[in-house]
């Protein structure tokens, strides 16, 4: 690529960042880093009525948690700043006026009530109202009014918008990296509003102007913006600018595969749809986040990369660096990608195994009140024994509580299976063997007890099942001899005596 690659992620600060937005940011980030380019964050806050306090910082925190810090953006390396559209307000009107001067846009004075009446009239006749070539000469705009009438309306302070003048009887040939060649009949396009009565641009004008001024080379965004592609191409052409390359990513679908995954689906379907927990500043309603639910950022990123992209190999586990090297927009699918909550858990299980035991031990200790006074080094040893069975730190207590406290009861079904005639005598002997083992190591315990079992021709199940039940309270957990070594000689004997008493 001849130009330095520059991409932007341009969310609106209207609430928490949806996981679909994170996927868009990820694909932009991977593309930029693969080509040695820049990843830019731009806050598109032209709609001040929908602005939500704290949303911008949430977006920045989410990107940082995912390991995708922006190179340029609000308060960071502002070479092309400012990066909030509300702070660029003075920039846009000149380009709207330039489009009027060139005949590519016009003033429209139609009120909301007038437009609503037109819509209802069309609906009554089974038609759809479109403000474009076929009716604009009949409406209240500078194409239908004289220049004196237009000047009088503007001078009197009458509200107006500036609309793009879409051409008639033309075929547009557009290119999209993901979708390929696209043909559009301009007769079906409406004359979109570019500049509003409140002095703010619409998304269409603002994002074109900002992308041009910030020298964006590739626009990688969601499929929902595909219907705007024709207008955006025409705006670049009308302003005499070179258009960036476009790539429209597939929708992220609900787990059923039907319909787009929305912000409301998290609570309804029982899994997070936001990277971080979010508290609504107005209602104080809390929405779950993947971080707070115990997911590792690596698993979220790895999972999201496969929603709409495939490397073309059997490999599924990728670090961020490996994703950067493998990523290719040409391998992004057109079809929607189904969100699978079980798959992201699968990723988390794998990343759990790769985590440092000391790090997990710290998290485990902080999350479990019962471990407040336990040495973190001991917890780390426990983690190393049971981690492979866990997908989340929150799984660890159920898998390892017996390392920290004796079982309060014994699984009824397992008890019937393990406790037979003669079990009491067997366990009494095992307790003596444990108590008499001087060099207390896993290997010595194993040799002593297994040797006794073999020499006395006792079935291993007759010994190991009730012994495990005494230590754990159920027929689960890591190697019995690891458990004995970890909890110690006195605690082991105490638990064996407790289960004998319960028999």
TrEMBL record:
Residues 368-500 form the Aminoacyl-tRNA synthetase class I anticodon-binding domain. Its EC number is 6.1.1.17. It is found in: Cytoplasm. A motif ('KMSKS' region) lies at residues 260-264. Its main location: cytoplasm. A motif ('HIGH' region) lies at residues 11-21. ATP binds at residue 263. Keywords: Aminoacyl-tRNA synthetase, ATP-binding, Cytoplasm, Ligase, Nucleotide-binding, Protein biosynthesis. GO terms for molecular function: ATP binding; glutamate-tRNA ligase activity; tRNA binding; zinc ion binding. GO terms for biological process: glutamyl-tRNA aminoacylation. Residues 4-346 form the Glutamyl/glutaminyl-tRNA synthetase class Ib catalytic domain. One of its GO terms (cellular component) is cytosol. Gene3D superfamilies: 1.10.10.350, HUPs. It catalyses: tRNA(Glu) + L-glutamate + ATP = L-glutamyl-tRNA(Glu) + AMP + diphosphate. InterPro entries: aa-tRNA-synth_I_cd-bd, aa-tRNA-synth_I_codon-bd_sub2, aa-tRNA-synth_I_CS, aa_tRNA-synth_I_cd-bd_sf, Glu-tRNA-ligase_bac/mito, Glu/Gln-tRNA-synth, Glu/Gln-tRNA-synth_Ib_cat-dom, GluQ/Sye. NCBIfam families: gltX_bact (TIGR00464). Monomer. Catalyzes the attachment of glutamate to tRNA(Glu) in a two-step reaction: glutamate is first activated by ATP to form Glu-AMP and then transferred to the acceptor end of tRNA(Glu). Belongs to the class-I aminoacyl-tRNA synthetase family. Glutamate--tRNA ligase type 1 subfamily. This is Glutamate--tRNA ligase. It comes from Seonamhaeicola marinus. The gene is gltX.
């Amino acid at each position: 690529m001849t130009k330095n690659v520059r991409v932007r992620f341009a969310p609106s600060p209207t609430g928490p960042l949806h996981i679909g937005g994170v996927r868009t940011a990820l694909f932009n980030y991977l593309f930029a880093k693969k080509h040695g380019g820049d990843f830019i964050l731009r806050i598109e806050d032209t709609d001040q009525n929908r602005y939500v306090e704290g949303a911008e910082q949430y977006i920045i925190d989410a990107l940082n948690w995912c390991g995708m810090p922006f190179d340029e953006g609000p308060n960071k390396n502002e070479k092309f700043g400012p990066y909030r559209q509300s702070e660029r307000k003075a920039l846009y009107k000149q380009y709207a006026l330039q489009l009027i001067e060139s005949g590519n846009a016009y003033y429209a004075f139609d009120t909301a009530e007038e437009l609503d009446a037109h819509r209802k009239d069309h609906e009554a006749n089974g038609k759809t109202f479109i403000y474009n070539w076929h009716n604009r000469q009949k409406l209240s705009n500078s194409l239908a009014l004289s220049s004196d009438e237009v000047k009088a309306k503007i001078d009197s302070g009458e509200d107006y918008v500036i609309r793009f003048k879409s051409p008639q009887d033309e075929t547009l040939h557009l290119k999209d990296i993901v979708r390929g060649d696209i043909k559009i009949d301009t007769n079906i396009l409406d004359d979109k509003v570019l500049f509003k009565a409140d002095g703010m641009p619409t998304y269409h004008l603002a994002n074109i102007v900002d992308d041009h001024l910030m020298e964006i080379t590739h626009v990688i965004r969601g499929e929902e913006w595909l219907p705007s592609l024709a207008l955006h191409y025409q705006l670049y052409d009308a302003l005499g600018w070179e258009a960036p390359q476009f790539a429209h990513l597939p929708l992220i679908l609900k787990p059923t595969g039907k319909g787009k995954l929305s912000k409301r689906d998290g609570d309804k379907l029982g899994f997070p749809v936001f990277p971080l927990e979010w508290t609504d500043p107005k209602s104080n309603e809390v929405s779950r986040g993947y971080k707070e639910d115990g997911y590792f950022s690596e698993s979220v990123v790895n999972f999201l990369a496969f929603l709409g992209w495939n490397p073309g190999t059997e490999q599924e586990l990728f670090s961020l660096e490996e994703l950067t090297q493998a990523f290719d927009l040409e391998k992004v699918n057109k079809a929607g990608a189904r969100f699978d909550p079980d798959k992201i858990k699968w990723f988390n299980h794998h990343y759990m195994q790769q985590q440092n035991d000391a790090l997990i031990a710290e998290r485990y200790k902080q999350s479990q009140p019962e471990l407040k006074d336990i040495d973190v080094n001991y917890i780390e040893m426990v983690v190393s024994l049971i981690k492979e069975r866990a997908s989340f730190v929150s799984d660890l207590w159920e898998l390892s509580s017996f390392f920290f406290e004796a079982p309060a009861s014994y699984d009824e079904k397992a008890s019937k299976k393990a406790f037979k005639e003669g079990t009491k005598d067997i366990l009494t002997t095992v307790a003596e063997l444990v108590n008499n083992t001087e060099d207390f190591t896993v290997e010595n315990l194993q040799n002593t007890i297994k040797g006794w079992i073999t020499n006395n021709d006792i079935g291993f199940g007759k010994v190991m099942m009730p012994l495990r039940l005494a230590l754990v309270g159920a027929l689960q957990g890591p190697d019995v001899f690891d458990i004995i070594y970890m909890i110690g000689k006195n605690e082991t004997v105490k638990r064996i005596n407790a289960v004998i008493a319960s028999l």
